[in-house]
């Protein structure tokens, strides 16, 4: 039996993939920005904050890192409404991504904070800055710079992991493939197209994050001007 | 009343007692060199005065303000004394000028323009007016240390604590930093400096404090300390330093 | 409609956990063997073979595991093989695990100091002998903590196989949630079981790493 690949259906269905990819991009944008922000606060709490904050944050980080994202998503979307926390599927997906990336980036950023030379903290103290001021103005940016490649990788992982949000009917890139294959019965081709788009998104996202990194951290360029 | 008043200061790290009862009184405008062997507690003393270490017993006051171990009082104290470190500790992500402006803005709440005016003034004072927009990694060690001095001066402290400010420098860069310190001394700044530069101590300082095993072993004007050491330990130390 | 007690839910989930564990083991062992074979190619001397393995890892690391599962499920079908979700899940997870392990292990081989290569070469060892007696034993030691750490990703990765219809912990969870309307309890329990599976692995990876760092310093 010979199978003939058929992509002609793409002529009609390509807008579904464009919309899906756009949803995936929006998800990772919101998830990335808010997730890293959450990660910074949690990393601070873990590395420098009072123990009363550090312990609950440690529990949160371990809970998230040791359970599947899919279950976190289901828990938020199906489980939380019984506590009266109701949200639509896109909000649930974004919340799940923020919480997930928050935990992973907290660990990554914490490593950056802990790699900060002691002298930097002491210089801040000796200039009468508060610990929080020292963290915000002195420690944070070099710490982020040190771990930026690892953080970028994690954002890409979360973007790829977001393909499961189609399971709560978010109309993302995976949903597009599900939709197309249910109409065309060309399942392999449909998922193949989505896979290629994911690959392109992953490459683009990595480039974008690296570019953003040089923009934020390259002191050289600013100095040259 | 002395500007810096240290009474019966004790400091231990765990079991080991590093400072075993230090008494030191520094008048405004004095320039004091602290000398002594490695491990005698010189850095620890300066770090205690700056509140970077918690003390076990004794009292420290600066400008009449007692050192109390809470954040608010510590910060008040640190506004009165600046500290220069052996390793400069400049902020790598900020230009020289921004290094000098940062604490003025976030601690003293000076507006940006005001902080910049002050920063340019102190940068000129350390001879680096033209390096305002350079990043630390574009500066030589000597220049970095001078930025660190400018950064402390911008906070208008009553005294400066200098811990071996030239020890991390290549020999040819030591001179430019010492020159800045010399000028500060001439301007009447109160200086408390740990140094291995004996010639400089002899020239510039009004008093030399010799520390030995966590105590002030001998102190006096440089002429006496260097020409006529009374204790065998100081004699041995000077002999070593001269060799 | 039948009534489910808490214990009904819990025991059903535990029964399904067997499949999560079994699939994890298959993926990890199969991925480990394939990964080891690919590792030798990846650090071997033929540049175009190296490049192919590199492309393989980048492909699997640059696309969602869920897509890989779908492609395995439908792709094996195209080959005329009658695939069960179980077979598709195992194939996809093995390929995916191998891709990550190759990269992890290659990093460990790279971490062996260059002097070790030079010293063993100066003793007249061949490439294979250098590998076997000098480099790999050292790389193996370094590789243990990150490999244990990655096993956590494998266990969590098996959750996605529920989407192609393999009945393991997550799938049992969704079925029970639909039947009982107790989503909060059911998914809470599912999360807890995954945590109990994964946390010891995470913890031992961390302890092993700390031990190794400590040993390294002395
Ligand atoms: N954080 C610390 N924990 C434990 N011991 C310390 C610590 N800092 C300093 N010490 C010990 O305290 C003693 C005094 O140290 P200190 O740095 O004050 O000496 P120093 O006179 O400045 O020496 P040097 O000339 O080498 O800088 C030393 O024996 C040192 O080992
Ligand atoms: Mg010292």
TrEMBL record, chain A:
Keywords noted in UniProt: Cell membrane, Membrane, Transmembrane, Transmembrane helix, Transport
Membrane found in the keyword field: yes
Alphabetical list of PROSITE patterns matching this protein: ABC_TM1 (PS50928)
GO terms of molecular function: transmembrane transporter activity
Subcellular location(s) per record: Cell inner membrane; Cell membrane
Gene3D superfamilies xrefs: MetI-like (1.10.3720.10)
Source superkingdom: Bacteria
Alphabetized SUPFAM superfamilies for the sequence: MetI-like
Pfam family, one: BPD_transp_1
Occurrences of domain ABC transmembrane type-1 (ranges): 21-209
InterPro entries for the chain: AA_ABC_transptr_permease_3TM (IPR010065), ArtM/GltK/GlnP/TcyL/YhdX-like (IPR043429), MetI-like (IPR000515), MetI-like_sf (IPR035906)
Residues that span the membrane, as ranges: 20-45, 57-80, 147-170, 190-217
GO BP term (any one): amino acid transport
Family: Belongs to the binding-protein-dependent transport system permease family. HisMQ subfamily.
Protein name (record): Polar amino acid ABC transporter permease
TrEMBL record, chain B:
Subcellular location, record wording: Cell membrane
Matches recorded under SMART domains: AAA (SM00382)
Membrane topology: Peripheral membrane protein
Annotated Gene Ontology cellular component terms: plasma membrane
A UniProt-annotated Pfam family: ABC_tran
Primary location: membrane
Listed PANTHER family: AMINO ACID IMPORT ATP-BINDING PROTEIN, GLUTAMATE_ASPARTATE IMPORT ATP-BINDING PROTEIN GLTL
Protein name, as recorded: Amino acid ABC transporter ATP-binding protein
Organism annotation: Thioclava dalianensis
Automatic annotation (TrEMBL), chain C:
One GO biological process term: amino acid transport
Top-level taxonomic group: Bacteria
A single GO molecular function term of this UniProt record: transmembrane transporter activity
Entry's localization field: Cell inner membrane; Cell membrane
GO cellular component, one term: ATP-binding cassette (ABC) transporter complex
InterPro entries recorded: AA_ABC_transptr_permease_3TM, ArtM/GltK/GlnP/TcyL/YhdX-like, MetI-like, MetI-like_sf
TM regions (residue ranges): 20-41, 62-81, 87-105, 148-167, 187-208
Ranges where the ABC transmembrane type-1 domain occurs: 17-205
CDD domains, sorted: TM_PBP2
PROSITE patterns, per the entry: ABC_TM1
Membrane topology: Multi-pass membrane protein
SUPFAM superfamilies: MetI-like
Pfam families in alphabetical order: BPD_transp_1
Keywords: Cell membrane, Membrane, Transmembrane, Transmembrane helix, Transport
Similarity remark: Belongs to the binding-protein-dependent transport system permease family. HisMQ subfamily.
Protein name (database record): Amino acid ABC transporter permease
């Amino acid at each position: 039996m010979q199978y003939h690949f058929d992509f002609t259906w793409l002529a009609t269905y390509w807008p579904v993939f464009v919309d899906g990819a756009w949803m995936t991009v929006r998800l990772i944008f919101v998830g990335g920005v808010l997730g890293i922000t959450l990660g910074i606060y949690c990393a601070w709490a873990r590395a420098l904050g009072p123990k009363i904050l550090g312990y609950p944050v440690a529990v949160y980080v371990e809970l998230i890192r040791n359970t599947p994202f899919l279950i976190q998503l289901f828990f938020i979307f199906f489980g939380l409404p019984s506590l009266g926390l109701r949200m639509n599927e896109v909000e649930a997906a974004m919340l799940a991504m923020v919480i997930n990336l928050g935990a992973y980036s907290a660990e990554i950023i914490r490593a950056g904070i802990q790699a900060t030379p002691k002298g930097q903290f002491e210089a801040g103290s000796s200039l009468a800055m508060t610990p929080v001021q020292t963290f915000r103005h002195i420690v944070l940016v070099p710490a982020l710079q040190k771990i930026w490649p690892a953080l970028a990788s994690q954002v890409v992982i979360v973007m790829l992991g977001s393909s499961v949000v189609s399971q709560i009917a978010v109309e993302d890139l995976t949903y597009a493939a599900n939709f197309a294959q249910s109409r065309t019965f060309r399942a392999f081709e449909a998922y193949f197209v989505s896979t290629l788009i994911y690959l392109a998104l992953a490459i683009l996202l990595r480039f974008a994050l690296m570019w953003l990194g040089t923009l934020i951290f390259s002191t050289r360029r600013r100095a040259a001007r | 009343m002395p500007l810096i008043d240290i009474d019966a200061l004790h400091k231990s790290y765990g079991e080991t007692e590093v400072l075993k009862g230090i008494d030191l009184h520094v008048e405004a405008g004095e320039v004091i060199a602290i000398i002594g062997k490695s491990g005698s507690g010189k850095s620890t003393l300066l770090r205690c005065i700056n509140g970077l270490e918690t003390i076990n017993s004794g009292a420290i006051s600066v400008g009449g303000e007692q050192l109390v171990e809470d954040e608010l009082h510590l910060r008040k104290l640190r506004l009165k004394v600046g500290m220069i470190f052996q390793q400069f500790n400049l902020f790598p992500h900020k230009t020289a000028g921004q290094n000098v402006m940062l604490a003025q803005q976030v601690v003293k709440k000076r507006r940006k323009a005001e902080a910049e005016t002050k920063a340019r003034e102190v940068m000129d004072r350390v001879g680096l007016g033209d390096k305002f927009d350079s990043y630390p990694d574009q500066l030589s060690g000597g220049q970095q240390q001078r930025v660190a001095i400018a950064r402390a001066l911008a906070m208008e402290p009553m005294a400066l604590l200098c811990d071996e400010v030239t020890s991390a420098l290549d020999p040819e860069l030591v001179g430019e930093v010492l020159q800045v310190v010399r000028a500060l001394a001439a301007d009447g700044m109160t200086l408390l400096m740990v140094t291995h530069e004996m010639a400089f101590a002899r020239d510039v300082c009004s008093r030399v404090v010799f520390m030995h095993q966590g105590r002030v072993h001998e102190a006096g004007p440089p002429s006496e300390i260097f020409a006529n050491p009374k204790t065998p330990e100081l004699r041995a130390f000077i002999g070593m330093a001269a060799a | 409609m039948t009534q489910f007690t808490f214990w009904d839910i819990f025991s059903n989930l535990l029964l399904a956990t067997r499949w999560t564990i079994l699939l994890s083991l298959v993926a990890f062992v199969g991925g480990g063997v394939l990964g080891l074979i690919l590792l030798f190619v990846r650090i071997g001397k033929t540049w175009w073979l190296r490049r192919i393995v590199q492309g393989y890892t980048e492909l699997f690391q640059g696309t969602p595991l869920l897509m890989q599962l779908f492609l395995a499920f439908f792709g094996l079908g195209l080959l005329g093989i009658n695939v069960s979700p179980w077979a598709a899940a195992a194939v996809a997870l093995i390929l995916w695990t191998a891709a990550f392990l190759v990269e992890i292990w290659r990093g460990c081989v790279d971490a062996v100091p260059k002097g070790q290569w030079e010293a063993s070469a100066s003793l007249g060892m061949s490439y294979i002998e250098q590998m076997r007696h000098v480099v790999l034993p050292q790389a193996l030691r370094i590789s243990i903590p990150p490999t244990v750490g990655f096993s956590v990703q494998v266990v969590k990765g098996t959750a996605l196989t529920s989407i192609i219809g393999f009945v393991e912990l997550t799938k049992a969870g969704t079925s029970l949630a639909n039947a009982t309307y107790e989503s909060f309890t059911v998914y809470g329990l599912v999360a807890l079981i995954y945590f109990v599976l994964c946390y010891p692995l995470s913890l031992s990876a961390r302890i092993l790493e700390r031990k190794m760092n400590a040993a390294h310093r002395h």
